[in-house]
Amino acid sequence: MTSTFDGAPPARLTGVLLLTSLTTMVAAAAIVVPSGLTLNPADPAGTLTAVNARVGLHLFELGLDVVGWLALTAAGLLMAARASQAGSPLAVLAAGLLTAAGLAGLLHDAGNLALTQLAADPTDPTTVTVAGAVMLTAKWGVNLAGLLWVAATAAAAFCTTTPAGLRRAGAVAALFGLAAVVLPWTTGTGGPSPMLEQLGYLLHLPIMIWYGVLGWRQLGVRTYAPA
C-alpha cells in the first residue's frame, strides 16, 4: 500500500517550506538590523521608543519572521513524517529537533508581539520594567530556537542518506551555529550588546543557507529520500 507521504509532492512541499523560511527570515533580519528595531533588554525604554516610532515596519518584519518560523515548523513535521515512513530514526530525530526549533522561534515572536502593545506608552516606568522582562525572555527564546536548530543540523549531518558533501557542509554549518548560540552565554550578567547580537546573526547564517540548499534539492526530488 502506498502512503500519502511517499513520492515527490511531499518532498517538493518540504522544499518550498524550507526556502520560504530562509527568504522570510533573511528579509526580516535585513529590515530589523539597519532600522534599529533590534530588541535590546539593556535599553527597554529606547527599544519601546523605536518600536512606537516605527510600529508599522516593526509589525511587517515581525510578520515575515512569524512566516519563517511557521514554515520551518511545518517543514520539520513533513520531514519527520517522511523519515518515519522510511524507517530512519536519526532523520526523525533531526526533523523533530527542527520542528521544536520552529516552535521556540514562534514563542520568541509572541514576545515581540507583546512588546508591540507595550510600546503604546514607552515612557511609563512600569511599562519599561515589564518590557525589559519580555525582551529578555524573547531573547533567550530565540537562543533556545538556535540551539535546537544547531542540534537538528548536526543530527541531519550524520544521516547516512544525506549526500556526503552536504553532510560535511552541515557539520561545518552546525559549528558556526553553535558559536552563535554560545555567544550570549559568554557575556555573563551584562547580556549581549547589539553588535554581538548581529555577529550571532551572521554566524547562524550558514545553517539557514544549508537548509535553503536542502530545500532546493527537495524541489527536484522524484522519489522519497530521507532528509
What does the secondary structure layout of this molecule look like, with pairings?
Elements (H helix, E strand, L loop, with lengths): L7 H28 L8 H10 L1 H32 L2 H30 L6 H33 L6 H19 L11 H26 L8
Helix pairs in contact: 1-3, 1-7, 3-4, 4-5, 5-6, 6-7
Note down, in words, how this protein is organized:
The protein is mainly alpha-helical and 227 residues long. The chain has one domain. Helices cover 78% and strands 0% of the residues. The chain contains 7 helices and no strands. Helix 1 runs antiparallel to helix 3, helix 1 runs antiparallel to helix 7 and helix 4 packs antiparallel against helix 5. This is DUF4386 family protein. Keywords: Membrane, Transmembrane, Transmembrane helix.
Helix count equals 7
Domains, number: 1
Structural class, by secondary structure, is mainly alpha
- The termini sit apart by 22 Å
Helical content class: over 70%
Backbone shape? elongated
* Strand tally: 0
Concise description?
With 227 residues, the protein is mainly alpha-helical. It contains seven helices and no strands.
Descriptive key words:
227 residues; mainly alpha; disordered C terminus
